Structure formats: structure tokens, C-alpha cells
Fold each of these.
Amino acid sequence: SSEESEPVKTICPYCGVGCGIQVDQGEDPGDVQFRPWGEAPVNEGRICIKGGAATQVVNHEDRLTDPLIKEDGEFREATWEEAYGRVVDELERIREENGPDAMGFFGSSKTMNEENYLLQKLARRYGTNNVDNCTRMCHASTVYALRKSLGAGAMTNSMADLEEAADVFWIQGANPGEQHPIANSQYFRQAVLEGATVIQVDPHANKTTRSFQIDETDRHMHLQLEPGTDIPLLNIVLKTVLENDWVDEEFIKSRTEGFDHLLETLEDFDKEAAAEECGVPLEDIELAAEKYAKANNAAIFTGMGMSQHTCGVDNVQNEINLALATGNLGRPGTGVNPLRGQNNVQGTSDVGAMPNVLPGYQPVDDDEARESVEEVWGFEVPDEPGLTNVEISHEAGDSIKGLYIMGENPVMSEPDANRVAERLQDLEFTVVQDIFMTETAEYADVILPATTWAERGGTVTNTDRRVQRMRGVDKVHENTKHDLEIVSEVGRRLFGEDGGFDFEDPEDVFEELREVCPIYYGMTYDALGEEGLHWPCYEEGDEGDPFLYEDSFDTESGRGHIEGVRHQPPKETPDEEYPLILTTARLEEHYNTGTMSRRSPRLHNQHPENFVDIHPNDAERYGVEDGDYVRISSRRGEIEVKAQVTEDIKEGVIWTTPHFAAASGNVLTNDVLDERAKIPEYKAAAAEIEVSVDA
Ligand code: SF4
């Protein structure tokens, strides 16, 4: 019974807040139960609906329990020996016939640091930098702008110091009320109760909007802008700050560079015309500017509403401009803070599962950095950045012949999903490591059954750079394997016993990771303990930094980089054929492609199917009644969903989600990319809507 074994302390497998939970295992290995963890450092026992339901998928009847090999279009069970043999033979064949860059490797933000570290090492030992993870889809542009202009691609501050010290929260294109429920309820809402003001900039009214309407005052604001007009809105804010001399001159002089460029960019900027473009009254934006600029400490939160645009890098740069111009960086309660979506999306990038950087964000094309890593690894790393995941999918069947996917589901997560599925069929070989038969696994040649989050140990890094340990209960299915074990074995078979893939356990891998990842160097499993540590942690004994840039920025000059930016409309705008703007976002009760959350009865019951939000005026125009089934189409495909008529969305805009396989919003989204960060434009496409005839 459960009294016999102690529950294990681990981390919630869903969002990037990093809540600690406990897992209890009864006598039967499949009897896995959730228990709160009262002293957990981030959440002190509190939990949202997803975290509380997380154990429901561990022993789900859909679990993959044995390796599968596809023969004549059908999967059959295979032994591990046979499956490994197939994977290694195909990887060797592809390299021989086409060179190593004909393979692509996808790490996963749902798997741990050690596992992603080993996967990117596998790709590089194989001879390619074509390795990426789904951070590309959520915050690639944020990471790009933050690294270039401040130094590190992560939250500048931590949830705890923000709660303590921020007077104003500027939340643009993020929805913590829905996506980071415990950060919202435990930290931000607490600050609001103590008097902090919230300014939300979002085309959609949502749980964040409602969660802050908790007091009688009218100090909070929601600026409901047209999708894709974030730059003009922030330019109005910046120009208002300049006109009123609300800048921090001392900070600009001593800590920044590029301020003149901002002045030049805004010189002829027409605030009135821009406000019209944004669809927000000018005086509201000016008032919001005043609240932010006059706060003692103001913090910016940025989310995928900012990053998932073809101008994603510039969107985030403009937030950085605002923070730097007003001196809101380098102190508790300030900064530019991306709220990260998955429990290890920060860590997956930290450990180098990206085509352009090695562990610790060391550029692959920097000779010195590469050589220092090569010294530990004992083999040469290719010196040219590889392809990103969307680029790999675009090349599938052309220059890319094979794909190694650990725990990702690109058929649903990438934009223009129908094309992704078509292209996967053009590959010569695909291997998928996962816990369920995902929409992507259906296209695989070999499927390797992995264990779930609850059954294994390792570390994950949450949204405020806190590295924490996960601990596992026993395996539920004998013939499944941990991701780490699988990647190690593939590595051993490809490169021999001395090829750099012989590890005893996750801690053994972490010890090597430290050697090549300076921001993690000071961490050991012992030092992480139950509290975890924030990076950067350069030396053993370092406490890690809850907020960054107190004295200088991690840029070459040590200064924060300001750079004025101009409006760039989304690549696809409404026209006669597709007259509406379609935007997409996620729900609290579901998680990305829904592989786990749709299988969790508690979460499924909350939201069993996809839907679309449509404004009452548009509903009338298209003859749509609340609850009708409607067909939404874009240039790329169509889906049928239930209509929800609501003033939460602006007229001319419709809003849906990517979570549901039967009708995923990503069938409609546009796969154009931000040129620098290669993130797709999920947040704006042109669409039309009609009432379904067959409904
Ligand atoms: Fe899990 Fe995030 Fe909910 Fe915390 S807030 S319980 S980490 S999903």
C-alpha cells in the first residue's frame, strides 16, 4: 500500500512555473497518485487544475508499451534489439548516402536537461547542428532580442522579487491567468492585492483580465489592440515618455547605448494615426505610459502574443527599449520577463538543443567556445549553425531525409499542419520516442516507447531560471525505457563504448553538462537539493541570481542596447476572400498539442472540443448563433468548431486554439517566419467563417 513507500518529490510536467508536487506509488506500479508538496519552493503546495491532474496520464490505457516497427504501412511489435538495430542502420545509411546534414533531431521541452543535453550531443557527434526544440515556436524571438540587447535569453527577474517590489505589471501578449496559473495567483495577484497596478495589452480579454479585476479601483487597464499592432502601441508609449521627459537620463547615459536611434525613429512618428491602427484610444495608451513610467519599479511580462509574429524580435526589442529608457532593469521588481510555456523549455535551450548554440548559449560558430566544448567531448563539432525545426520540416523530403524526434509532435504544433504531415511522408526514415501514439508518431518508421515524467529523474529549469530536480517512481510498464537510456544506447551503438555516451544515470550526465555549460557550472545534484538554484551559477557555492544586470549587461559593451523599431504588419492581412484576422492561443486546461491533457479525464471534461470566439457584430454579419458549428478556413486548410459569441474578442478578429487533433487551429495558421529568430506567425492570419451546413 502507499504507506509502505515514501512519495517522491518532483516537478509538475506542464507549464514553466515549476511547481513542486509529490507522486505516490502503491503496490501495483500503475497505481500512481498525486500528492501536494507543502514546502515546494515555488508554489508551497498550491497547484492548478493541470498540475493536480498530471498523474492521470501516467498509467493511461493508451501508453506505448513496446517498440513498434512499421511494415507495409502497419505497425508491429518489435524487440528493443530489432528497433535499435533499425534506427542505427538507417542513421548510418542516411549519413553515408547524403552526409550528416540530411538528418534532423528534435529535442523536447517536456523532457529533462540531461536528456536534451544528450540528444544534442548525439546530433553533433553524428556531424550536424540540425537540432532544435519547440522553444523555436514559442520564444525564439524573445530569446534572440534579450540575448542581443541585454545578454541572456531568459527572465531578467524572478517571480519572488517581482511580487515583492513591482508597482506596475505591464503584461503584453501574455496570459498568466490562463497559462501560468500559480505564478498568477501566488505571486502577481498577491502584488495586486498589495496595491500593484496591471496594464494588460492583448487583443483578447481572458482570465488574466478577469483575475486582476479584484479590487474596486479602476487603476488596472486592458488595452485591447488589433493583432499585430504591438510595435505602434509601444511606440506611442515611448513617444509619450519622451515628450513628457519621463525617461531616466542617468540610466540612459551610464548603462545604455543606441538611445539616439530611438529618438530618430520616433521623430516623425504620428501618435494619432498609430492609435487608429491599434484600435485603441490614444488617451488610454498615454495614461498607460504614464502609469508605467512613473512607477518606482515597473516590470514587463512578455508572451507569445509578442513573440509569434514575423516581427517577433522587434516586438520584444521595443519592450526592451521601454524598460531601458525608463531605467526599469537591474533591480528587483523590474525587467523584461518572458513567461515560459513548458516545464523545461528554458532548460532545453540552456543545454544546447538549438542549431546555433552549444550548451550555455555558446555560439557554434565561435571558435573558442566550440573548442572548449570539443575538449570535453573529444570530437569535432560542425562550425556552421544548423537548421531550425520549422526549416527542417520545410526541407523534409528534399535535403532532409531522416528525422529523430524525442517527445515532440510537429504535425500538430507547427503551423500549416496539413503540409507538415504531407512532408513527413516524404522522409526516408523517422524515429519517434514518445509515451503515446501521437499524431506525429503515426508517420514514424520506428517508435520507441518512453517512460513518463513521473517515472524518471533528472533536472528541469523553470521560467525564472530555477533548476530543480525531478525524482521518479518505478516504471509502470516493464518494456518502456527512459529517454536518457534510449539516447545513450543509440549513441553507444553508433559511436562505440568510448564514443561519449556511456553514462550511469542522470547525475552522471549532469556532471558532464556542468563542464561545458558555464551558467550551470556551480550546480551539483547535492547543491540543488529540494530548493533548486537559479542560473547563472558559475562557481560551486554560488547562490545563483534571482535578478540580472545589477551593475552591467552581458553584452560586449556591458551596456543595454536600445534600437528604435517600426511597424511591420502581419504577412497576411484580411482581404475580400478572407476578411477576418485569425489569432490563436491556449487554454488553462489544455497543454499544447494535447497529447497528455486530452487524455486526462479531468482536463478533457472541462474542454472536450475546440471552439472559436467571435464578436457579436461579426456573428450577426455571418449569421452565426452562439453554439453553432462553423467552418473556419484560411489559405491553408479548414476546421469545423463550435462558435462562442463573445465581446472578449474585437470585431473583425476570431480566436481559436491548437489543442485538439480533430480541429486544430494550426491547420489554419501561416508558416511564414521571423527572418532572424525563425519563429512562425501563429498570431495573425487571414480567415473566413461560415455556418456549417452539415452541422
Ligand atoms: Fe503545473 Fe504550471 Fe499549474 Fe504549477 S502553474 S501546477 S507548474 S501547470
Amino acid sequence: QCVAVCPVGALHERDYTWDVVKALQDKSKKVIVQIAPAVRVAIGEEFGFAPGTNVEKKVATALRRLGFDGIFDTNWAADLTIMEEASEFKERIERHLGGDTSVPLPLLTSCCPAWVKFIEHNYPDMLDIPSTAKSPQQMFSAVAKNIWTKEMGISREDLVVVSIMPCLAKKYEAAREEFSVDSNRDTDISISTRELVHMIREANLDLQSLPESDFDKPYGDYTGAAVIFGRTGGVIEAATRTAYEWITGDTLKKVDFEDLRGYEGFRAATVKVGDLNVRIGIAHGLGEARKMLDKIRAGEEHFHAIEIMACKGGCVGGGGQPYHHGELSIIRKRAEGLNSIDTSMEIRKSHENPYIKALYEKHLDKPYSEKAHKLLHTHYYSREKV
Ligand code: SF4
């Protein structure tokens, strides 16, 4: 048992690598894996790469050698999350501007389970502001267990979904009751970046010498918008790229929203979306988040949308990553690594991901449809007295 402690104070780390090994040895099961955006720019540090180096293709090879049956990317599901979150934002803001003041604003992005739990405990009167869209981890797993199994002709009990996350709170998220069907979880096992490092070392593999390979299709391709989920401000920037085009009907000339970037713990920016001045707030670290929410609650600040990440710097600084000992320069290099991937991509807006479009056409009708709601949305609980 590892004794590391989550930096958000939520959890003691539990090591599930042995559960993954047992699943891989069970030949009656298919075992697939997804890796989160922030993992690819940090795991290399344990194998001699500089912080921020993107080693995703070497990790794909390592996962294949470890015996996984499908090597997929949580980034793909981050694009899917944006489809639902941007739709929800468009709907809420249009109804609000149309005079319906009962519509809750700001919309709060909901990818960070530590933050979701924090608001459930501490701000139960504000539970209507988080987007109901599931996190990318849970969207990926819901699609895998409910759609991919049918395409593969297997039952959900015969599929094991493993996630590799920069995060310890993701283990808790995977275990939340609403993400299971008859006790069969959507995400069966969530392990951290550090746990994957142990597995790679135990298998006597070295990322430096491994060749590169691609992720599998159809859940392995992503856009630049997806990969910036791993740094502070990235989820709201990705959502803004899509919401802008959907609200205005225009094509964005510049997809980089520089005003939403930076490392101040609590920052705000106004983004022009057609005739609208959309006010956006961003916080990372729970102390900063508390400040932001207290101001919103007191009516001292008004936002249309906010992003909160429990860890400093966002997931690049997550509690499951190689230790950075609070060194901001390491966190920044990882974030810059994600920005470089984003700028190198041909497609940088989630709604242009062809595999996402195909999923809607084949299975979900359109974003925010009834079918999409059933599969991709969730709800929150007051835990004030728990
Ligand atoms: Fe997990 Fe931290 Fe990322 Fe939140 S910000 S999802 S706690 S790694």
C-alpha cells in the first residue's frame, strides 16, 4: 500500500495495480484502457524525459505490451464532454438572455471529482450550477460499456475498463454509485500515473527505448481542444471554442483564448461571443475556489461560466502524477507541453472530431438529445450532513 496523500486532502492513495494485473491475466475478459490528457506530459519524467515531453505514443506501446486489448484515449471523451457542456451552456445562456431568470448561471465545468465532492459538502445550495455532463473518464467508460460492448458482441460484465489518471480523486469518482449498473461499474479500475510507472517498471519496459505506436480507433483520436483539459483554464477554453461557433454561427478566426490562460489562482476574463460579453471565472486550488464561490454567493461577482480545478495548475499538477513537490516550473512545463500538442493539431475544436460526429450520428442523434442525456449526464447530491 502506498502512503502518498492527495494534495486536495480528499483521499489516501490506494494502489490498484495488482487488480489491473489480475484482470489482464483473466482470459475470459477483454481489458481496455484510457489515458487522461495530463498523463502524457508527465510520465516521461520517471524515465528521463524532460517535464512536458509528450510520450503518448511510447505509452501506447507500453500498454500494448502489458497486454491490454484496446488502447484508447480519454482525450477522445474530452471532446465528447465539450459537445455536451457547450450545448448546456448555449441552452442556459440563451434561455437566461430570453428572460428566464430561473435558469442557473454561471455554468460550472464538472470534470474534477474532488471539486464536485467539495461543492456537494460545502455549497449544497449551489448544486444547480455544475454542468450535468459527466467527466471525460466517465463518458469514455459509459460509451465503452454501453455502446462498444454491443459493437464487439460482448456483455458489459466481460469488459474491464481501466483508466490511467493524474488524479487520486478519480478512484472515488469511478466508485460513485450512479456510475454503476447492477454493481457493474462503468470504470472498473482507476490507477494513477505513478501506478502505471510501477507497472511499466515491473514489466521491465523502458519508455526511452520503446518504439512509438498509435492509439486504437475509434476512441483514440482527439482534437487540440481535448488535450488542454489537463491544465488550468483548458476545459473552459475548449468549451468556449465550440460554444462561440454554435452561438454565433461564425467560424472562429483564432482559437487561442489567451485571456483565459495564466496561473493566478483566481482569475477572470470577458470573452466576446458575437454581441455577448461572456464573463468567465477560473480557479485552481480549493482555497481559491472557495473565494470565488463565496463572492458569487454574496452577489459580489457575476459570471456566465466558471472552471474550477482542485489541484494547482489543474490536472498536470494532480496528486497521482510523478511528484513535483509543488515546483511551479515543472507544472508549467507540463502545461506548456499540452499547449504545444494543441497548437500542433490540425483539428482544434471538439465539434470537428470526426469520430465524435460519427458517434452522434450512429447512436446519440445529436448533442444534448434525450439519448445523450441518458448516457452522458449525471446528477449531484447534497452531502452537507454526511
Ligand atoms: Fe483530479 Fe486534481 Fe485534475 Fe481535479 S484537478 S481532476 S483532483 S487531478
